[in-house]
């Protein structure tokens, strides 16, 4: 750890070759083009109301793409709902602090830029008559769930077996489920032959193979806390992706609640389509209903149970779709901050949540994790994240040396999702 700790600079897209630069130059234009293609596929008749609205949205997306491409100044959002009003307030702060000429995709923070893209898409759809509730990413999220059905079957079968076995190693199961929630999408099922027990065994074996790639590994400490110190208290899970990842979060929550290890679990998602795959209220409802109707009895049992489980609740506070990092939660969403602070643990899933936790800054790799969390260090939290962006904190000297020996000056390890962190913070 450095002897003197200073707030690191924000990640921005003004460094050619950086991941932020590539997001603005390549990734977001591709994503928004996919939205255009999806709209035209879903609403091919330009003469009906849906088709007309779709083409109106398409024309607005083309303008947004030009703003990205030509580094024009951000355009204020049409304040159709409260989210967009708040976003304009943050945009004005950006102009006041950095100068209006710097309110663009090159000079503003990468975090603000990304949030701006998805807020604008939300505005475009809200401005229509017929597509206010349309999710351009729904097809992709739904396909991801169906593609993961073998994983889901295996987890459901294992969960039923654990329920029946009074000798189940509770801490060991929680440790496995936390790792499944981290790595599940990377598990290869090609050698399973379709048997759920073999799939599960293969999945857990592969998790052991991935363990060395968790650069900060507090999995066992988090499992110990959940197994022994969370009873009669609330656990929060801040969702990342829909599909398999959402199901792994539900499986973890089910085990904790069914075993009486926690009082209840509060899930947090996004109010509108966000960063392609983030969980919205419609996603949460659709996944539970889809599982409940599945032809496999093991999956259907849990789908039906989760639809009615009083210990589960889903919320989508406005704060999660603000362009702010989580350092601002205490000031702008004080009641949410106090609720998380008083909980047994809040599990933050995924890359964007991690970026927001540590301020989305270009930290030295060995910076103290608590320092990088700033005010969020007051919250008992556990961050589960595969690395997909060029910020990370709290690495050991040994791991920094290993990464430098393996990659030299190449930073591709920070964005490949081949490495992960599982970082626990206790106040």
From TrEMBL:
<dbReference type="GO" id="GO:0032259">
    <property type="term" value="P:methylation"/>
</dbReference>
<dbReference type="GO" id="GO:0006974">
    <property type="term" value="P:DNA damage response"/>
</dbReference>
<dbReference type="InterPro" id="IPR036075">
    <property type="entry name" value="ARMT-1-like_metal-bd_sf"/>
</dbReference>
<keyword id="KW-0533">Nickel</keyword>
<protein>
    <recommendedName>
        <fullName>Sugar phosphate phosphatase</fullName>
        <ecNumber>2.1.1.-</ecNumber>
        <ecNumber>3.1.3.-</ecNumber>
    </recommendedName>
</protein>
<comment type="similarity">
    <text>Belongs to the damage-control phosphatase family. Sugar phosphate phosphatase III subfamily.</text>
</comment>
<dbReference type="GO" id="GO:0051998">
    <property type="term" value="F:protein carboxyl O-methyltransferase activity"/>
</dbReference>
<keyword id="KW-0949">S-adenosyl-L-methionine</keyword>
<comment type="function">
    <text>Metal-dependent phosphatase that shows phosphatase activity against several substrates, including fructose-1-phosphate and fructose-6-phosphate. Its preference for fructose-1-phosphate, a strong glycating agent that causes DNA damage rather than a canonical yeast metabolite, suggests a damage-control function in hexose phosphate metabolism. Has also been shown to have O-methyltransferase activity that methylates glutamate residues of target proteins to form gamma-glutamyl methyl ester residues. Possibly methylates PCNA, suggesting it is involved in the DNA damage response.</text>
</comment>
<dbReference type="GO" id="GO:0046872">
    <property type="term" value="F:metal ion binding"/>
</dbReference>
<dbReference type="InterPro" id="IPR002791">
    <property type="entry name" value="ARMT1-like_metal-bd"/>
</dbReference>
<keyword id="KW-0378">Hydrolase</keyword>
<keyword id="KW-0464">Manganese</keyword>
<keyword id="KW-0808">Transferase</keyword>
<dbReference type="InterPro" id="IPR039763">
    <property type="entry name" value="ARMT1"/>
</dbReference>
<dbReference type="GO" id="GO:0005634">
    <property type="term" value="C:nucleus"/>
</dbReference>
<dbReference type="Pfam" id="PF01937">
    <property type="entry name" value="ARMT1-like_dom"/>
</dbReference>
<dbReference type="GO" id="GO:0016791">
    <property type="term" value="F:phosphatase activity"/>
</dbReference>
<keyword id="KW-0489">Methyltransferase</keyword>
<keyword id="KW-0479">Metal-binding</keyword>
<feature type="domain" description="Damage-control phosphatase ARMT1-like metal-binding">
    <location>
        <begin position="24"/>
        <end position="399"/>
    </location>
</feature>
